[in-house]
Design a protein that fits this description.
By secondary structure, the chain is of the alpha+beta class. It contains 10 helices and 17 strands. The protein folds into 3 domains: about 5-90 and about 155-185 and about 325-364, ATPase, nucleotide binding domain (Nucleotidyltransferase, domain 5, 2-Layer Sandwich), CATH 3.30.420.40; about 95-155, Dna Ligase, domain 1; about 190-320, 2-Layer Sandwich (Nucleotidyltransferase, domain 5). The strands form 4 sheets. It has a 7-stranded mixed beta sheet, sandwiched between helices. It has a 5-stranded mixed beta sheet with strand order 15-14-13-16-17, with helices on both faces. Strands 9-11-10 form a 3-stranded antiparallel beta sheet.
Length: about 375
């Protein structure tokens, strides 16, 4: 699903993925030979604070220059294509599952337009949208079918396209973070399972409930890895940089004998635990597309904090997996070029690059 889909009219290399967040940009470019995939290029650069806030680009010139720097410095090979598939922040998107009487696709196309007006707080003229008829298992009533609808404000999508084009790139697709993460993190083993993905980022934590490869519910809260560092800084009388180094080096410390850093961040962890439980309760009591939770996957930079997964596993009484975004990349016996701890931060951009590669393959 995409808000912008421009045809690839030539057989030039596939597009690369670009993940845009408040404090960083990540790029990754995949190639395929036969049954083997290869990471041709990847990289990450920081974005100056205040240039992007809550997914809104406030300083276009700064972001344009950051994108140019990323494309220029990514390796091991130079990114030689201008075509890109870019992420859109979840905060700028609306995801809904709507119920319609069973009908042919062409009839559904018109019906979806009416439902968008009723379910999204923007007019049809103000959004880019895409939709997908879901398998029968999602139908809530006999004679009905469920349709996944994702929409984003036209102004936000057009601003992203403008910035990409100013940086010398050709955007051929825009996609929400949740859809890209589902593509990279969920393997065939999760095909019929209900999975909660928890993405702990620098500025916010996002939740994605997915069944198979379909995200059915998304939300986010302003609880983040950066807030944990700030709590350690204030609670232990350290500078922010010292607290960040301590968090990276020692994590939460001992869970059986609470460390000073665990005591400092416990209120944030408890709030986040409550938000996870609230999201699960809403899903199972209101949406009810499935009856049980099969897996919980953590990703994002904050998921690397030592002791975090055991803490939440005990708190919400669920086994938690550390996200593996390489699960659908066919690397053979090769080791991923990004180490395990950093790979989870690339979950979104790997999903974007994989989509670019698969769509390119389908027309080549």
């Amino acid at each position: 699903m995409s808000f912008l889909q421009r045809n690839i009219l030539d057989f030039s290399p596939p597009p690369f993925g670009l993940d845009v967040s408040d404090l960083s940009l990540k790029a990754l470019w995949l190639s395929r030979e036969g049954s083997r995939d290869q990471v041709t290029s990847f990289g990450s650069v920081s974005v100056p604070q205040g240039a992007i806030v809550d997914g809104e680009i406030l300083k276009e010139d700064v972001v344009v220059e950051s994108i140019r720097e990323l494309v220029r410095t990514a390796g091991p090979k130079h990114i030689s294509t201008r075509k890109v598939i870019c992420s859109l922040p979840e905060t700028k998107a609306f995801l809904r599952i709507i119920s319609l009487p069973r009908m042919e696709r062409e009839e559904a196309r018109e019906a979806v337009k009416w439902e968008i007006e009723a379910n999204i707080p923007l007019s049809l003229e103000q959004v880019h949208y895409d939709w997908q008829i879901l398998p029968d298992m999602f139908a809530t009533e006999k004679g009905k079918m469920s349709v996944l609808v994702v929409a984003v404000a036209r102004s936000a999508a057009e601003q992203f396209c403008t910035v990409l084009e100013r940086a010398g790139l050709e955007p051929i697709g825009l996609e929400t973070e949740s859809i890209a993460q589902v593509r990279s993190l969920l393997s065939e083993e999760h095909k019929s399972e209900t999975v909660l993905i928890v993405d702990i980022g620098d500025r916010r934590t996002s939740f994605v409930m997915a069944i198979g490869n379909v995200p059915v519910f998304t939300s986010s809260v302003p609880l983040s890895s950066q807030m944990m560092t700030d709590a350690i800084s204030k609670g232990m009388g350290l500078s922010f940089d010292e607290a960040e180094k301590l968090k990276i080096r020692s994590g939460l410390g001992s869970l059986s004998l609470p460390s000073p850093q665990l005591q400092a961040v416990r209120p944030i962890l408890e709030n986040l635990s409550s938000e996870i439980e609230r999201s699960l309760d809403f899903y199972f009591s209101t949406l009810r597309y499935s009856k049980k939770l099969d897996a919980v996957i953590f990703c994002g930079g904050g998921a690397n904090t030592q002791g975090l997964l055991p803490y939440f596993s005990s708190r919400i009484r669920q086994n938690i997996e550390f996200g593996n975004p390489w699960t659908n990349i066919r690397l053979g016996k090769e080791i991923p070029p990004i180490d395990r701890n950093h790979s989870t931060q690339y979950s979104t951009v790997i999903g974007l690059a994989l989509r670019g590669l698969d769509e390119y393959e389908s027309i080549a």
